[in-house]
Amino acid sequence: MPFSERIRKSADPIWKASHEHPFVQGIGHGTLDIESFKFFMAQDYKYLIEYSRVMAMGTALAPDLETMSGFAEALDDTLNMEMDLHRSYAERLGISREELEATVPGPVTLAYSSYMMAEAQKGSIAELIAAILPCAWSYYEIGLELAKIPGATEHEQYGEWVRMYASDEFGEIGYWLIRKLDELAEGKTEAELDRLEEIFLNTSRYEYMFWDMAYKREKWPV
Ligand SMILES: Cc1ncc(C[n+]2csc(CCO)c2C)c(N)n1
Predict the structure, then answer these.
(1) Which of 68, 80, 129, 211 could potentially form a cystine with 62 if both were Cys, beta carbons 3.0 to 4.6 Å apart?
(2) 51 lines ligand 1 (CB under 6 A)
(3) Which of 47, 51, 75, 112 gets mutated to test ligand 1 (max ligand atoms within 8 A of its CB)?
(4) Which atom of ligand 1 is nearest the CA belonging to 81?
(5) 81-98 pLDDT tens trace
């Protein structure tokens, strides 16, 4: 069994909880409170800045040109395609560019992005990929699931979001990371694989927490 299949299986209960979360279902059915969506997009914008730094580290740590170029491409897609979605939604929803950039990261956003960065700084490309993979892979799965709901891709507010994450272009980034991790997993000891699985499970949990904090518009308690 490829390593990606093993970790996807063990993360299944967490991923199911994310798919069923009222925030995710609310996007698909067009019923999500727009204030929660605005909150999410602003927090996500800050998250994506940190995610981009991790991908830049992946570019620097890459052992060969093919891997380097894959990371550089994914980095470009995040900064210039995915974050464009956030910038255009923000404009439409009345959030200025300054406001977007000045968003204070909430507790989950900060914890999630700091954890990814900490794993990336340990220096192994496999750990870095294990940390960022749930992000790219789970959004594609969610995008595809939501796109099956009648009317979801055409919804006035959330249709564009669903179309972007269900797109082949986003799928490709996820599949590329999966292939890389499977290649890197070959020849690793069971203890090393367990460690990669633990990282993958942790960022899968953070993905769930991110949906939940956006739904509740969670702020710092003091
Ligand atoms: C919390 C959070 N998790 C995942 C994504 C989705 N995402 C982030 S980077 C990337 C890969 C290509 O750029 C994808 C699909 C997000 N936006 N926010």
Answers:
(1) 68
(2) yes
(3) 51
(4) 13
(5) 999 999 999 999 999 999
Q: CA 168, 14, 154, 82: dihedral to nearest 10 degrees? A: -50
H or E element that contains 59:
helix 34-61
Mean pLDDT of all residues in 133-157: 98
% pLDDT > 70, the chain: 100
132: exposed, middle or buried (Cβ count in 10 Å: 0-12, 13-18, 19+): buried
71, 173 contact by CB (below 8 A): no
DSSP strands (E only) in 151-214: none
pLDDT digits (tens, 9 = 90+) for 11-68: 999 999 999 999 999 999 999 999 999 999 999 999 999 999 999 999 999 999 999 9
Interior/surface letters 107-116, b for 16+ CB within 10 angstroms, e for the rest: ebbbebbebb
Output the pTM of the full model. Answer: 0.97
- Give the three-class secondary structure for 93: coil
Determine the Cα–Cα distance for residues 78 and 95; give it in Å rounded to an integer.
20
CB 129 within 8 A of CB 1: no
From CA 109, how far away is CA 121, in angstroms rounded?
A: 18
pLDDT of residue 95: 95
Q: How far is CA 70 from the centre of its chain?
A: 17
Cα→Cα distances 215→30, 91, 135, Å: 14, 21, 18
Domains of the chain plus CATH, in order, are 3-216 (1.20.910.10)
Neighbouring C-alpha atoms within 13 Å toward the C-beta of 70: 21
